[in-house]
Description:
Blueprint: E1 2-5, E2 9-14, E3 21-28, E4 35-39, E5 47-49, E6 55-57, E7 63-66, E8 69-72, H1 75-83, E9 89-93, H2 106-115, E10 117-120, E11 148-152, E12 155-160, E13 166-172, E14 180-185, H3 192-195, E15 202-204, H4 208-213, E16 226-229, E17 232-233, H5 243-256, E18 266-270, H6 274-286
Parallel strand pairs: 4-9, 13-18, 15-16
Antiparallel strand pairs: 1-10, 2-3, 3-9, 4-5, 6-7, 7-8, 11-12, 12-18, 13-14, 16-17
Helix pairs in contact: 1-2, 1-5, 5-6
Amino acid sequence: MVSTIASMFELSGVGLHSGVVTKVRVLPASPGEGRYFVRVDLPGEPVIPARLEAVSQTILSTQLGQGEISVRTVEHLLAALAAMGVDNARIEIDGPEVPLLDGSASMWCEAIAAAKLAEEQVSRGEFESIFSPAHLHKSAGGPLQQPIWVHQGDAFVAAIPSPELRFSYGIDFDLPAMGNQWYSWSPSRESFSEAIAPARTFGLLHQIDELRAKGLIKGGSLDNALVCGPDGWINPTLRFANEPVRHKILDLVGDLSLLGSFPIAHFLAYKASHNLHIQLARRILDGNW
Length: 289
């Protein structure tokens, strides 16, 4: 069985990088349509599929595009839709970037829960949903027999054979308040909406001016992002003691959702980035392992 939402919902807010206020309306979609964006502010309302082949940029967020048309910072919304079982969704947006909201995926999860799911009478196919006991397949078929990984320096992300879906992540920052953190999450044991979705995006105080000079994080503020400096968090209190690394799992789930749905594997990452997440997903999709 596959699912869409039973009713429409909408949320609005400022985009992290663009600083532009946009409104997102998420509507039911038919079986097989998948999750996709529609730029309703542009002539012809162009469609951008939430698929790996549409990734056009991965600098501090994941951007999807078709030609000159794009939508940025899609990972939190897509993580919430995928983790909560929404296989098919029409995502209408009236600007270039998905709202950051409070920096987490909690508001998206709450809206999806309120909209409820509607099951569609179609089998899922090669990949299964995040909660299904399925197996990862190569393009030629068959279960995953060996690890797949990509790395850059000491940063890496890998997919390891596993009887259950699991995400483990490590971060390491030279700031006492953050330092080295690890967290491992399995959807069969902990709710995404409780364990992962509330974790907010975070930034480093000493990088803010440089990033803004590059035209990034124009919409970032202490209301929608955690900021850490040498003397500690600028805007406590944290929702979890290890909130930053939980947010990295949120990003990883959103990026891997661009495969369409989740293969069963243990995804393990350390100091990784959107770029490395997407590289791993491409290797999985291409069977290049």
